[in-house]
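Good morning C.,

I know you're traveling, so I'll keep this short. The sequence:
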Amino acid sequence: MHNGDVSARLLRILLTGILVMMGGLVGSATADETCQSPFLPKVTGQEDYIYVWTLGIKGVADGNDSIVTVDANPKSASYGKIIHRASVPGRHEAHHAGFTDDRRFLWAGGLDTSQIFIFDVGSNPAQPRLVKRISTFVKDTGGLVGPHTFYALPGRMLISALSNAQDGSGRTGLAEYSNDGKFIRTIWMPKEAPYGYDVRVNVNLNRMLTSSFSGKKNYMRPFGDLVKDAEAMKQFGSSVIVWDFHARKPLQILSVPGAPLELRWALLPNHHYAFTSTALTGKLVLIHQQEDGTWAAKNIADIGDTIPVDISIAPDDSKVYVNTFMDGTLKVYDVSNPFEGKLIETVKLGEMANMVSSSWDGTRVYATNSLLSQWDKPGDYWLKAYAWEGGKLVPKFTTDFNPAGRAHIMNFGSKVFGPKAAAPAARAVRVSAYAAPR
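The C-alpha cells, ready to paste straight into the viewer:
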C-alpha cells in the first residue's frame, strides 16, 4: 500500500465515523504476560494483581502519572477494584513498563519527557513504591527519545526508543541499562531501517526482532491533523528487523508496510515464528523462519478498516488476540495454522480499546482503553477482565479508572514474589522453558 493510499484510508476512517474526534485521538500501542522476556519468572497460575501504568489527567487525583494496582484474585473481597495508586511527579505520557529479570522491580517510561521510573514491587506486591527516577535517558544514550518497551535481560534492561533528540523523527535505537539503573550502551537502528517500536527475543534461536512506528513529532501530534498531512504520513516505519541477539547485529530487514507494532514470539520450543500487526494497513502478519534459515513476512489476516494497536498470544500458540482502537473491539484469531489467521470471536469492549493481555494459563484476558493523551477519545477509562467459559469470552469485571487516570499498559503481579513468600509456589511461578541459564 502506498503512502497516499494509507493517508486516504485513514482519512476515510476518520470521515465515516469509526473515529470520533474531539480534541485529538490515538494510534500506537505494549506488555503482555505471555510475551514477557524469556529471562523472567512467569506468573503461570492465578495472578494476584494487575499493575497498570496510568496517564495522569489534570484535575483527577493528584494529576500525575501513576502505577495503579488492581486486585485480580477472584477469591479476594476487593476483586476487580483499585487497591493502591503510586504516583510519580508530573505527567510524562505514561506508556509502557516491564519487570527486571528477578521480577522485583518494574521500570516504566514516559514517551514525552523520556523519563524512566523504577518501582519496587517485591517488598510489598500489593503496594508498588517508587524508588528511582532516571531523568538522563536522552543524554545517556546519545540522543534517543521516547523509551517504549522495557525488556528484561540477565542483570540488564533492554529499552527500545521511538525517536531522537535531533529532529524528532523516527530514526532511533535500543538502549541497555544495568538493573541498578546505570547506562551501558546504545545500539542505533541500521540506516536502511531507522525506525523502532517493540523488541522481543527468542533465546533458542538466538534471534531478536524489532518493529517500527514513527517519531515524536508524529506520535505527539493530534491524529486528525496527522492523517491530513501527506508528508507526515510518509514518516512511518515499514520494516521488521531480524537480529543476532547475542551480537546485537542486524541480519535481515523484512518489508512489512504500514507500521508494524507489537511483536509476539510463538511460545512452544518448536514454533519458529512470531506475529505482529500493522497500524496503518490493518494486517495480522506472520514472521517465520524458512527452511534455509532466513526469515520472511506474510500477511495472514485482514483486520479491517480500523487501527490494530496491541496483540497478545495464547500460551499454546493457538490464538492471537487483537485490540483495535477506533472501534473499541477485541478480535480473536485462530492461528493453529500460523500461515492462516481465522477470526473466531469478536468482543465489543467500548468506544475505544488499546492494550490486551492473556494470562499464562490461557483462561483470562484483560484489556485497557487509553493510548496517548492527545489521541484518546473523550469518555470513560477502564480495565476490563474476561474469561473463557463454554468456548466464549465472558466478562468478569470492569475497573473504573476515571478516579485514577487513563489506564494503559498492564503487568501481572503475584504474592509469590513478596518478601514473606516461601520458595516459589508451583501454582504461580515457572521459569521459561526456553530461558538461557543465568
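Safe travels,
E.
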